[in-house]
Amino acid sequence: MPSGRASKRKRRESRRADPFNAFVSRLSRESLLTLLGAAACSPSAVHRLPSISGALYRILATPAVGLGTADSSHLTGLLQAAAQDYQEIAALEDVTPLDPSLPAEVRFGSSTYRLHPGSQERPIAAVRRAVLVAGVIDDVLIEEQGFGLTDLIELFLRVSHASVVHMAPTWAGLRMRAPSAPATVSQAELTAYSSLPSIESAISLCARPVNARAALRSFTSSIQDLTFDVGDPNSAFGSVLAVEFGDGQVWSMPSSVQIDAFTSAVSVLAREAASLRPSVAEALHSVVTARVSQRLWDAQLISAVTLQDGGTIDFIAGVAARHALAIQCVPHLANNRDQLHEAAVPLERLSPGDMFRAAGRIGQVPPGTEILRLCIVASSGHMMIMGPRGIATLTLDFF
Q: Cβ distance 245 to 304 under 8 Å?
């Protein structure tokens, strides 16, 4: 008996010491996850996604033990308690994200899928970038891991599409809110979120269900291993698409959270493929140069240029009288910060009057020509690029 009273006293003291635990201790985990999942996707709450994600992590990492049902009236208190845990959240909620009720659609294969943009500025570009990378790393991944990036893309898109289409009717009339506005969620949204199509149903629709299940398994975390970094510029939950509870139940992250995790997972797979077979970087380079060549088909384009000092430049284009554009394409699959600067060296050395060789012929950059230097970087994820001084740098998304 005394030990039981002592245990209860410790639990009461723990709740008093932790405002978040005190707030959720009487509420069930299932209802809290439904509330936070619906809020994470809602046009009237997604502007508070960092706070929602922080609360979500607390619920997942330390499941509530209560039996009560969380409803929309609990949302403000949940987010306030989470904000006390993560002081940096305030600085992350000073922008208005894209409106999920507006169609963001991407074509994959023969179908079109709706995306929840989450915190992404260019969600469609994120998928297209993944498709580009999948074309050069799938063979390596399937051989080594039993699934390809294409399998992960399809699974992600099917889960996202099912979620957005299921929730969209409840968003009618809702409007995005200013960053300082409180987050709200309706009972209709809670009801709809509690009956989302299962991730198993998405797997069953995939072209290769076995591969899709293997892909999901690779990016599912146990509760014990789940991590959260609210300041991570790419994804607060890393590459985790789903969470497995101790009883074996798999819970899919909200679609607004999944898109960040998906882009992180793409980068993880690209790095793994590059480490297993370094030649995939060269394959990506070939794909990128072909795409750039198509975009510049009407320019006076000279390809595969070799300079007098042995350096190589992918393209030199005459864009106007006395103006030339020198382009270097840089495949970026691994965390190699020096790669861009190394690729830019031939651009830096190129000068008016220089001789070069291309297609078996000798050419010259006319003396007095103004040379514009450009690096186009093809990466597996979104990048903030700081190129060498005097050289413009773009990701392939913007070219």
A: no
